[in-house]
Amino acid sequence: MRLILFFSILTLLFSNNNSFAIRYNWLGVANSDWATPTNWSPNGIPGPGDDITIGFVINPCQLDANRTIDGMVINSGTLNLGSFTLELVALNSNFNGGTITNGTLFFNAPANIITLGNATFDVNLNINAESIDLDGGVYNNPCVFNQVGATNSTGTGNAQFASTLDFTLSGSGFFRTNGNNLFQDDVTKLITVVITFCLKD
User: Fold this and answer.
1) Which of the residues 20, 87, 92, 98 could staple to 71 if both were Cys, CB 3.0 to 4.6 A apart?
2) pLDDT of 2-50, one tens digit each?
3) pTM value?
4) Alpha-carbon distances, residue 64 vs 32, 33, 83, 121 (angstroms)
């Protein structure tokens, strides 16, 4: 009986070997296609449960279809979404630089805090998160933010919005951000949002 149990556990471990998350680094050695395995290290195609890192290379990464991953790090370079949607569902994301362009970036992580850093977002940006921290960034397309949790945001500010911002506080947490944020479009809506923030602060 013990021998049977041992082999059953061993079989289960090997059968689930592909379920471990992988951190893929973009190399772009073949072309710009997301779906080319040799463009990534390790070789493969990122999917649900995986994370990616994007940096500056000769062939910038271009998404080939609507895809879902856990998270991403971008420090430089460009990620072209190819008019598709990239959905991020976990906490493992940092936006320290670089550009994301041409499509929709959707954070669907209601249990996590999302921090937006000094990247340029030339995409439609939709966020559904526990809390949203604005630590810089340039937002050139419409943004829809929904803060759903009880955690107060603590952003450092210095964000620039060149298009509309639709911000909803559907949780009990406050939205706080330091100064030097620039809003260039949809001023009436943004004034209403800013007043709401001040009343809750």
Assistant:
1) 92
2) 544 444 444 444 333 345 889 999 999 999 999 999 999 999 999 999 9
3) 0.84
4) 10, 7, 9, 19
What is the per-residue pLDDT across 37-52, written as a single tens digit (0 to 9) for each?
Answer: 999 999 999 999 999 9
Give percent of the chain above pLDDT 90: 67
**What secondary structure does DSSP assign to 43-95, as a single string?**
SS---TT-EEEE---SS-EE--S-EEESEEEESSSEEE-TT-EEEE-SS--EE
Supply 200's token pair. Answer: 């809750």
Please identify which residue in the block is written with the tokens 């709401």.
196
DSSP annotation string for 11-39: HHHHHTGGGS--EEEE--SS-SBTT-GGG
Is the dihedral angle over the CA atoms 42, 24, 100, 142 positive or is it negative?
positive
- Around Cβ 132, how many Cβ atoms within 10 Å? 25
